[in-house]
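Propose amino acids for all 197 sites.
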């Protein structure tokens, strides 16, 4: 007996979620490996396999996956800003997928900081001084205790000592960047003595 095709307003089925998660992890694996890929090509290809979903809804679901990964404390695709109103069915699916993923991708996925820790030189004031981001309402459609339950289940995948060391290194790099930036501003204002202090 053939499965009934979902209508566009229905929650995504388990099979649809599996397909979109597979597609997301294919892109994430390439991104973490530094390999090029084109998001629109992935969306178009996936849309052919998901006739009840538009390319826009597929992109939105990719953003939901980013939000679910973020909630679990994992890395996600840079180009898919997290949209927090995700289906709770994503949490166990991502948990299972992360555990069975190739070890190199899994290790990259649980490492929260991919960018180099050293600030760039020279510092461009135009690139540093930007308007504050708009704050997104901190609401989750999935109960916070459910997110915490799945996060605890992910704990055995994370090297907490390494994560703590990287967080401390990132914090120190941020402090050094701020000092260098303020020294540069003092120098440009003719306050070399203050900059040296």
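Proposal:
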């Amino acid at each position: 007996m053939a499965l009934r095709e979902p209508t566009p307003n229905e929650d995504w089925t388990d099979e649809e979620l599996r397909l979109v998660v597979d597609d997301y992890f294919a892109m994430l694996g390439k991104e973490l490996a530094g390999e090029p890929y084109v998001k629109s090509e992935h969306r178009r290809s996936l849309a052919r396999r998901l006739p009840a979903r538009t390319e826009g809804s597929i992109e939105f679901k990719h953003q939901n996956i980013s939000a679910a990964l973020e909630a679990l404390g994992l890395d996600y695709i840079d180009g898919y800003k997290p949209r927090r109103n995700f289906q709770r069915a994503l949490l166990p699916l991502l948990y299972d997928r992360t555990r069975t993923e190739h070890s190199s991708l899994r290790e990259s996925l649980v490492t929260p900081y991919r960018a180099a820790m050293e600030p760039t030189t020279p510092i461009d004031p135009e690139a540093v001084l930007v308007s504050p981001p708009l704050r997104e309402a901190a609401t989750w459609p999935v109960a916070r205790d459910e997110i915490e339950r799945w996060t605890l289940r992910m704990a055995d995948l994370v090297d907490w000592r390494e994560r703590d060391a990287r967080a401390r290194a990132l914090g120190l790099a941020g402090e050094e960047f701020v000092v260098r930036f303020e020294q540069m501003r003092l120098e440009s204002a003719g306050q070399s003595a203050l900059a040296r202090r």
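Residues 37 and 52 are 25 Å apart (CA to CA). The mean pLDDT is 80.
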